[in-house]
Amino acid sequence: MIGLSTYAFFWQHSDRAPAPLTLADMLHRTRSSGVDLFQVCDYAPLLSYSAAELQGIRSLADDLGITLELGTKGLQTEHLATFLSIAEVFGATFVRSMVNGPDSTPTLVEAESLLRAALPAFEAAGVTLALETYEQVSSTDLVSLVETVASPALGITLDPANSVAALEHPRDVVERTAPYVRGIHVKDFAFSRRGGWVGFTLEGVPLGTGLLDYDHLVGTVRPEERGINQVIEHWLTWRDSFDETARLENEWNSHNLSYLRSKQS
């Protein structure tokens, strides 16, 4: 299944928007794009929602025919328990997280202990916890962690663009993590020379125009065959104005959806 996420509307729900999109707004945008999946990922206001507000989002998603997923950062026991409880309200069976959280950087030994504490509840609830590939933890170490914990509820969220910052080649990351991938964040990226040709900038570009070898990714991971969802994100840098940035964000969403659909036809 192809999905959108809060990162697909990053600037339009940010503080830089004159009228930031609400979660309900993003769900309606998702439906109007003909998309049946939405991942609420790293969306800070979610933790302040009341029980009634959370149920309201679930009801809206149900009415729109949208499946919900969740995304957060970190492995702290109480934090993961909170997101598991939100997942149960949302009817979500997928939670993306990261080894590193906003306030914690556990060692791999500590991460293993935290996961062993959290995962029995995920297993009982039928919810997958999928740790994203990031430069802070090598893909080799991430695979080792998943293999060591060996829980049926634990997997990997593949985003090969993130690991470029650790000088890992995207194809290597894809091939190394493929057996454990349970979700994919799809975004293309490219290097460009900075002003004066002093250094490079790594930033997002529309799918099919950058360095992501998408055909290799899907050929290796086989998401359709394995029932792995592909969620669109962007690394769209701020432009000269909100209007220009929002216009591009919406254009990229349309382009990227068309690109993924064309690959499935």
From TrEMBL:
Pfam families: AP_endonuc_2. Gene3D superfamilies: Divalent-metal-dependent TIM barrel enzymes. The keyword Iron does not apply. InterPro entries: IolE/XylAMocC-like (IPR050312), Xyl_isomerase-like_sf (IPR036237), Xyl_isomerase-like_TIM-brl (IPR013022). SUPFAM superfamilies: Xylose isomerase-like (SSF51658). Keywords: Carbohydrate metabolism. It comes from the Bacteria. This is TIM barrel protein. It comes from Antiquaquibacter soli. The lineage of its organism: Bacteria, Bacillati, Actinomycetota, Actinomycetes, Micrococcales.
